[in-house]
Amino acid sequence: MQRNYQNKFYSKAQNLIQHLTMEYNRILKDYDVIVMPTSSGKPIKLPTRADSIGETLKLVLGMIKNTAPFNATGHPALSVNAGLSEGLPCGMMIVGRMFDDLTVLQVARAFEKIRDGAN
């Protein structure tokens, strides 16, 4: 019985990943890259032993909701230091078309030059 559930959930996950990949590919037909925050919020305090597993998972999964999709789809993505927000570092994620790592790297380098004031 357990094996059947694992197969069912694995199959569902694979279908969702395929759908997500197609949606990002559709968006990237019109744009060279997608630029977004690396993290969707401020850094969190580390969970303590007093926190439940559910609370800990909620915190951790909340931290990776912008990055995890691209781990699944395989789109090239990187995070570059975008400066500070309220004294804390924040990252800018650049995501590109499948197999177009070079454009992602070029956009990141261009941003770094502008950010650092280089010509």
UniProtKB/TrEMBL annotation:
One of its GO terms (molecular function) is catalytic activity. Pfam families: Amidase (PF01425). Coiled coil: none annotated. Signal peptide: none annotated. This is Amidase. It comes from Magallana gigas.
